[in-house]
# Entry
Amino acid sequence: MGGLPRAVAQAADIVITMVTDSAASEAVLCGTDGVLEGAHPGLAVIDMSSIAPRSPGPSPSAPGQGRAHAGCPGHRRAQGASEGNLGVMAGGPRELFDACVPLFEKFAAKIVYAGDNGMGTTLKLVNT
# Structure
C-alpha cells in the first residue's frame, strides 16, 4: 500500500473503504501506514467491506482523535456502485449516518440505518 491509506486519511474528511474481507479491512484501516495512522479530528471512516459482523475494526473514537467509524457494507456487485444501485446497510453512530446520506445517495438506491457498529453487516447477512 506504500502509505496511501494514511495519506488519503490525512487529506480527506471522509474515507470509504471497500475491500475483500476482514483481514484486508484490518490491514487498510489499522495496519502500518493505514487509515488510522493518518486520522485527524473530524475524520469519518466508512468501511463498506464485506466483513464479519463483529470484526474489531477501529473504535468509534480514540483518545485525542475526534473521528467516527461506521460499517456500511454494500449489497450487490461492485458494478452496482457505478450504476447507482448499491444497497447500503449502515451500522454506527446515527449522526455519522445522517451526515453521509447525501454521499450514499450518489451510488446507492437503497439506504438503511441498522443501528450500532456491526449491525449493517448483520443486516446484509440476513438479506443475502
